[in-house]
Fold:
Amino acid sequence: MNLFDAHNHLQDDRFAGCQAELVSACAGVGVARMVVNGACEADWPDVLALARAHPLVLPSFGYHPWYLGERTPDWEKQLAACLDAAPSAIGEIGLDRWKPGLPYAGQEEVFLAQLRLAAERNLPVSLHCLQAWGRLHELLRDHPRPAAGFLLHSFGGPAEMIPALARLGARFSFPGYYLHPRKARQREAFRHVPPDRLLLETDAPDQPLPADQIRFPLADAQGQPLNHPANLVAVYEGLAEFLGEPVATLAARVEENFHTLFGPPAVAATPPSQRVKATPRRPPPQLKTKNSKT
Ligand SMILES: [Zn+2]
Structure:
Protein backbone atom coordinates (compact mmCIF):
# COMPACT_ATOMS: atom_id res chain seq x y z
CA MET A 1 0.00 0.00 0.00
CA ASN A 2 1.48 3.35 -1.07
CA LEU A 3 0.70 6.36 1.08
CA PHE A 4 0.84 10.00 -0.02
CA ASP A 5 1.24 12.98 2.28
CA ALA A 6 -0.36 15.88 0.42
CA HIS A 7 0.98 18.49 2.85
CA ASN A 8 3.75 18.75 5.40
CA HIS A 9 6.67 20.97 6.45
CA LEU A 10 9.57 18.55 6.69
CA GLN A 11 11.99 21.49 6.51
CA ASP A 12 10.71 22.89 9.82
CA ASP A 13 13.51 23.84 12.24
CA ARG A 14 11.74 22.01 15.04
CA PHE A 15 12.81 18.75 13.38
CA ALA A 16 16.34 19.87 14.24
CA GLY A 17 18.28 18.17 11.49
CA CYS A 18 16.60 14.75 11.94
CA GLN A 19 14.98 14.86 8.52
CA ALA A 20 16.84 11.82 7.10
CA GLU A 21 15.62 9.68 10.00
CA LEU A 22 12.06 10.93 9.59
CA VAL A 23 12.10 10.20 5.87
CA SER A 24 13.33 6.65 6.40
CA ALA A 25 10.61 6.03 9.01
CA CYS A 26 8.08 7.31 6.47
CA ALA A 27 9.43 5.01 3.76
CA GLY A 28 9.18 2.17 6.27
CA VAL A 29 5.41 2.59 6.61
CA GLY A 30 4.87 2.93 2.85
CA VAL A 31 4.96 6.69 2.29
CA ALA A 32 5.70 6.98 -1.42
CA ARG A 33 5.66 10.76 -1.75
CA MET A 34 5.21 13.81 0.43
CA VAL A 35 4.61 17.39 -0.63
CA VAL A 36 6.98 19.49 1.47
CA ASN A 37 5.77 23.08 1.67
CA GLY A 38 8.09 26.03 2.08
CA ALA A 39 6.24 28.89 3.72
CA CYS A 40 8.71 31.79 3.31
CA GLU A 41 11.94 32.66 1.53
CA ALA A 42 14.10 31.30 4.34
CA ASP A 43 12.47 27.88 3.89
CA TRP A 44 12.85 27.54 0.16
CA PRO A 45 16.54 26.50 -0.08
CA ASP A 46 15.93 23.91 2.67
CA VAL A 47 12.95 22.48 0.80
CA LEU A 48 14.99 22.26 -2.39
CA ALA A 49 17.86 20.55 -0.54
CA LEU A 50 15.46 17.99 0.96
CA ALA A 51 14.05 17.20 -2.47
CA ARG A 52 17.56 16.67 -3.81
CA ALA A 53 18.48 14.41 -0.90
CA HIS A 54 15.25 12.40 -0.71
CA PRO A 55 13.46 11.29 -3.86
CA LEU A 56 10.15 10.92 -2.05
CA VAL A 57 10.07 14.66 -1.32
CA LEU A 58 8.04 16.71 -3.78
CA PRO A 59 9.10 20.31 -3.20
CA SER A 60 6.59 23.15 -3.07
CA PHE A 61 7.46 26.82 -2.71
CA GLY A 62 5.25 29.67 -1.57
CA TYR A 63 4.67 32.59 0.78
CA HIS A 64 2.31 31.70 3.62
CA PRO A 65 0.18 34.60 4.92
CA TRP A 66 1.70 34.28 8.41
CA TYR A 67 5.16 35.20 7.13
CA LEU A 68 4.40 38.01 4.69
CA GLY A 69 6.11 40.50 6.98
CA GLU A 70 9.43 38.75 6.29
CA ARG A 71 9.38 39.11 2.53
CA THR A 72 12.23 40.92 0.80
CA PRO A 73 11.79 43.17 -2.26
CA ASP A 74 13.22 40.25 -4.23
CA TRP A 75 10.78 37.58 -3.14
CA GLU A 76 9.07 37.03 -6.47
CA LYS A 77 12.41 36.62 -8.20
CA GLN A 78 13.51 34.12 -5.54
CA LEU A 79 10.29 32.17 -5.92
CA ALA A 80 10.64 32.03 -9.69
CA ALA A 81 14.25 30.80 -9.30
CA CYS A 82 13.12 27.95 -7.02
CA LEU A 83 10.40 27.00 -9.47
CA ASP A 84 12.92 27.03 -12.31
CA ALA A 85 15.12 24.66 -10.28
CA ALA A 86 12.23 22.35 -9.28
CA PRO A 87 9.06 23.07 -11.24
CA SER A 88 6.72 20.91 -9.20
CA ALA A 89 4.28 22.88 -7.02
CA ILE A 90 3.46 26.24 -5.43
CA GLY A 91 2.51 26.54 -1.76
CA GLU A 92 1.80 27.10 0.92
CA ILE A 93 -0.04 30.29 0.07
CA GLY A 94 -3.38 31.60 1.28
CA LEU A 95 -5.63 33.91 3.22
CA ASP A 96 -5.98 34.13 7.00
CA ARG A 97 -8.44 36.26 8.94
CA TRP A 98 -8.23 34.06 12.01
CA LYS A 99 -4.73 34.48 13.44
CA PRO A 100 -4.80 37.13 16.16
CA GLY A 101 -2.69 40.17 15.31
CA LEU A 102 -2.03 39.11 11.72
CA PRO A 103 -2.67 41.98 9.29
CA TYR A 104 -5.00 41.11 6.40
CA ALA A 105 -3.76 44.03 4.31
CA GLY A 106 -1.40 42.76 1.63
CA GLN A 107 -2.50 39.13 1.89
CA GLU A 108 -4.70 39.17 -1.21
CA GLU A 109 -2.05 40.87 -3.33
CA VAL A 110 0.60 38.27 -2.45
CA PHE A 111 -1.89 35.44 -2.81
CA LEU A 112 -2.96 36.59 -6.27
CA ALA A 113 0.62 37.10 -7.47
CA GLN A 114 1.36 33.47 -6.57
CA LEU A 115 -1.92 32.18 -8.00
CA ARG A 116 -1.03 33.93 -11.26
CA LEU A 117 2.37 32.25 -11.27
CA ALA A 118 0.71 28.86 -10.69
CA ALA A 119 -1.68 29.51 -13.58
CA GLU A 120 1.11 30.66 -15.91
CA ARG A 121 3.27 27.63 -15.16
CA ASN A 122 0.31 25.28 -14.70
CA LEU A 123 1.58 24.04 -11.35
CA PRO A 124 -0.66 22.63 -8.60
CA VAL A 125 -0.98 25.09 -5.74
CA SER A 126 -1.59 24.38 -2.03
CA LEU A 127 -3.83 26.80 -0.18
CA HIS A 128 -4.26 27.71 3.48
CA CYS A 129 -7.55 29.35 4.36
CA LEU A 130 -8.86 30.35 7.77
CA GLN A 131 -12.04 32.39 8.14
CA ALA A 132 -11.87 33.71 4.58
CA TRP A 133 -13.78 31.07 2.61
CA GLY A 134 -16.19 33.40 0.83
CA ARG A 135 -13.40 35.70 -0.28
CA LEU A 136 -11.17 32.79 -1.30
CA HIS A 137 -13.95 31.42 -3.47
CA GLU A 138 -14.46 34.81 -5.15
CA LEU A 139 -10.77 35.27 -5.84
CA LEU A 140 -10.39 31.76 -7.26
CA ARG A 141 -13.52 32.19 -9.38
CA ASP A 142 -12.49 35.55 -10.79
CA HIS A 143 -8.80 34.92 -11.55
CA PRO A 144 -6.84 32.50 -13.73
CA ARG A 145 -6.20 29.21 -11.95
CA PRO A 146 -3.78 26.40 -12.81
CA ALA A 147 -5.45 23.78 -15.01
CA ALA A 148 -3.61 21.24 -12.84
CA GLY A 149 -5.90 22.18 -9.93
CA PHE A 150 -5.39 23.29 -6.35
CA LEU A 151 -5.32 21.75 -2.88
CA LEU A 152 -7.31 23.12 0.04
CA HIS A 153 -5.03 21.83 2.77
CA SER A 154 -6.70 20.88 6.06
CA PHE A 155 -10.01 21.88 4.53
CA GLY A 156 -12.11 23.36 7.31
CA GLY A 157 -14.62 25.36 5.29
CA PRO A 158 -18.37 24.88 5.20
CA ALA A 159 -19.52 21.59 3.65
CA GLU A 160 -22.01 23.57 1.52
CA MET A 161 -19.12 25.22 -0.34
CA ILE A 162 -17.53 21.92 -1.43
CA PRO A 163 -19.40 21.56 -4.76
CA ALA A 164 -18.64 25.16 -5.84
CA LEU A 165 -14.97 24.83 -4.91
CA ALA A 166 -14.72 21.43 -6.60
CA ARG A 167 -16.07 22.96 -9.82
CA LEU A 168 -13.12 25.38 -9.78
CA GLY A 169 -10.62 22.49 -9.48
CA ALA A 170 -10.33 22.04 -5.71
CA ARG A 171 -8.92 19.00 -3.93
CA PHE A 172 -9.59 18.65 -0.21
CA SER A 173 -7.04 17.21 2.18
CA PHE A 174 -7.79 15.64 5.53
CA PRO A 175 -5.34 16.07 8.43
CA GLY A 176 -5.01 13.66 11.36
CA TYR A 177 -5.98 16.53 13.63
CA TYR A 178 -9.59 16.15 12.48
CA LEU A 179 -9.70 12.73 14.16
CA HIS A 180 -10.04 14.57 17.49
CA PRO A 181 -13.60 14.23 18.83
CA ARG A 182 -13.99 18.03 19.00
CA LYS A 183 -13.38 18.31 15.24
CA ALA A 184 -16.67 16.60 14.32
CA ARG A 185 -17.85 19.42 12.01
CA GLN A 186 -14.62 19.44 10.00
CA ARG A 187 -14.59 15.63 9.86
CA GLU A 188 -18.21 15.38 8.74
CA ALA A 189 -17.58 17.79 5.86
CA PHE A 190 -15.33 15.13 4.31
CA ARG A 191 -18.35 12.91 3.69
CA HIS A 192 -19.31 15.50 1.05
CA VAL A 193 -15.96 15.58 -0.76
CA PRO A 194 -16.22 13.97 -4.21
CA PRO A 195 -14.32 10.62 -4.19
CA ASP A 196 -11.87 11.80 -6.85
CA ARG A 197 -11.01 14.99 -4.94
CA LEU A 198 -9.89 13.54 -1.61
CA LEU A 199 -6.31 13.66 -0.28
CA LEU A 200 -4.71 13.13 3.15
CA GLU A 201 -1.97 14.98 4.99
CA THR A 202 -0.02 15.19 8.22
CA ASP A 203 0.90 18.91 8.18
CA ALA A 204 3.86 17.67 10.25
CA PRO A 205 5.27 18.95 12.58
CA ASP A 206 1.86 20.49 13.35
CA GLN A 207 -1.69 19.16 13.72
CA PRO A 208 -1.03 16.12 15.94
CA LEU A 209 -3.46 13.18 16.02
CA PRO A 210 -5.39 12.22 19.16
CA ALA A 211 -2.95 10.73 21.68
CA ASP A 212 -4.28 7.18 21.35
CA GLN A 213 -3.79 7.20 17.58
CA ILE A 214 -0.22 8.51 17.47
CA ARG A 215 1.96 5.77 16.02
CA PHE A 216 5.24 7.70 16.04
CA PRO A 217 5.57 9.91 19.14
CA LEU A 218 8.05 12.77 18.81
CA ALA A 219 9.01 15.82 20.82
CA ASP A 220 11.42 18.71 20.38
CA ALA A 221 14.36 19.46 22.67
CA GLN A 222 12.03 21.30 25.08
CA GLY A 223 9.66 18.35 25.25
CA GLN A 224 6.99 20.00 23.11
CA PRO A 225 5.15 17.34 21.09
CA LEU A 226 5.69 17.29 17.33
CA ASN A 227 3.70 15.45 14.70
CA HIS A 228 5.97 12.83 13.09
CA PRO A 229 5.25 12.58 9.34
CA ALA A 230 5.12 8.76 9.53
CA ASN A 231 1.88 9.18 11.50
CA LEU A 232 0.38 9.45 8.01
CA VAL A 233 -0.38 5.74 8.26
CA ALA A 234 -2.65 6.44 11.24
CA VAL A 235 -4.36 9.29 9.37
CA TYR A 236 -5.25 6.82 6.60
CA GLU A 237 -6.54 4.29 9.13
CA GLY A 238 -8.57 6.87 11.03
CA LEU A 239 -10.19 8.32 7.92
CA ALA A 240 -10.89 4.87 6.43
CA GLU A 241 -12.67 3.89 9.62
CA PHE A 242 -14.66 7.13 9.66
CA LEU A 243 -15.72 6.73 6.01
CA GLY A 244 -16.45 3.03 6.56
CA GLU A 245 -14.21 1.73 3.81
CA PRO A 246 -11.20 -0.60 3.83
CA VAL A 247 -7.94 1.31 4.17
CA ALA A 248 -6.56 -0.35 1.00
CA THR A 249 -9.54 0.91 -1.02
CA LEU A 250 -9.06 4.42 0.35
CA ALA A 251 -5.32 4.25 -0.33
CA ALA A 252 -5.81 3.17 -3.95
CA ARG A 253 -8.22 6.04 -4.56
CA VAL A 254 -5.96 8.60 -2.88
CA GLU A 255 -2.94 7.38 -4.85
CA GLU A 256 -4.76 8.11 -8.08
CA ASN A 257 -5.96 11.47 -6.81
CA PHE A 258 -2.45 12.42 -5.72
CA HIS A 259 -1.02 11.62 -9.13
CA THR A 260 -3.77 13.50 -10.91
CA LEU A 261 -2.93 16.65 -8.98
CA PHE A 262 0.82 16.45 -8.38
CA GLY A 263 1.97 14.42 -11.39
CA PRO A 264 2.18 10.80 -12.45
CA PRO A 265 4.16 8.11 -10.61
CA ALA A 266 7.77 7.11 -11.10
CA VAL A 267 9.15 6.37 -14.52
CA ALA A 268 11.22 3.23 -13.94
CA ALA A 269 13.72 4.10 -16.65
CA THR A 270 14.83 7.43 -15.17
CA PRO A 271 18.61 7.25 -14.81
CA PRO A 272 20.13 8.01 -11.39
CA SER A 273 21.82 11.11 -12.82
CA GLN A 274 18.40 12.75 -13.13
CA ARG A 275 17.50 12.21 -9.50
CA VAL A 276 18.89 15.56 -8.45
CA LYS A 277 16.34 17.37 -10.57
CA ALA A 278 13.60 16.28 -8.20
CA THR A 279 10.74 17.02 -10.56
CA PRO A 280 7.39 15.41 -9.75
CA ARG A 281 6.83 14.26 -13.29
CA ARG A 282 9.80 11.90 -13.14
CA PRO A 283 10.45 10.65 -9.64
CA PRO A 284 13.47 8.38 -9.50
CA PRO A 285 13.15 4.60 -9.71
CA GLN A 286 14.82 4.03 -6.36
CA LEU A 287 11.59 4.96 -4.62
CA LYS A 288 9.58 2.36 -6.50
CA THR A 289 11.92 -0.40 -5.44
CA LYS A 290 11.69 0.70 -1.83
CA ASN A 291 7.93 0.83 -1.95
CA SER A 292 7.51 -2.55 -3.52
CA LYS A 293 9.25 -4.04 -0.50
CA THR A 294 6.85 -2.50 1.98
ZN1 LIG B 1 0.98 23.89 6.29
Remarks:
- The chain has a mean pLDDT of 91.
- The chain has ten helices and eight strands.
- Residues 3 and 31 are 4 Å apart (CA to CA).
- Residues 247-262 form the longest helix (16 residues).
